[in-house]
């Protein structure tokens, strides 16, 4: 009889532990959804690069801006694309205005500076606009940077 009670108690503990794990997973999923909503609600263009310069995240404002600025293929500015290679290519084609941005991103990625900010002019369908780019490191074991572009 005692063995049966021990077994029932063990089963009950396992069931409670399983219920706790399910609640934990649900909270994690709700938090992830909440964080994504927050990032997509920001009124700035936001992109995250990994340590090699590949885009790992863009928010809705980034995507909207790509479409609004007539980028023929918005996926060219999306996840999986190497942002540094795009900057380097623009410099190689004579677009020297990109050089400070490229070098600033590299400086943060390489840990030479803690952050980088730079004001620049950009031709858009609405005319010439002024923006500020800010680059900050991602402080985890994967590294990378967060880049924001804010209209001024």
TrEMBL record:
<dbReference type="InterPro" id="IPR035965">
    <property type="entry name" value="PAS-like_dom_sf"/>
</dbReference>
<protein>
    <recommendedName>
        <fullName>PAS domain-containing protein</fullName>
    </recommendedName>
</protein>
